[in-house]
Description:
This protein is mainly β. Helix content is 13%, strand content 39%.
Amino acid sequence: MLPVAKEFQTVFVLLTLTLIGIHFVLDPAPYYLWAPWLILLLFIRDFRRESPPIPQAVISPADGKITEVIQTRDPFLDRLSNRYSLNQSIWGEFNIHTPIEGRVEQLWVYNTKKQRKCLAFSIQSDEQGVVVVEIELKPYFQHASTHIHPGERVGQGKRCGFAAMGCKVHIYLPKTAIPVGQIEDQVKAGREVLAELTVSKKAP
């Protein structure tokens, strides 16, 4: 499989075949024609990411820098929440990864008051902890998609969509979550730990 986001594999293959065909027709063909191919590959690359073996870890859903860690109201589930905010890197991969293992509960697609498009989804762990990921798109490039659906079970740190570029990403956690990542930390999607969920102890 090509190391590119699956949403763009068809376009990438067609562009590659077109450029190869041009080289057969034009002899010699100018090598600068491959510049769009290289730019596209940089934009849609998707290399495998390995998540750390920590069952209760909340994995970063996007490449970027942590800009804020606060306690605030979760507007999706109406609860007091610990929220991590990330500025998506313009040089990292633009793939979105699931923060925890569990069941997809809800998906939201909406516009903010500033008319910015947003995509959000929630996942509930087996221990009933719910994590919400909100992706706020920049006005100059509004593209985000996900292939997960409510009711589907997903793995921790697995690729689940694509969003670009320079998005703002918010991760709403239960208020009992233990912070790990700190402001100014550079994090990798599907790899770096933002926090750890606590497991509630049942009465004997």
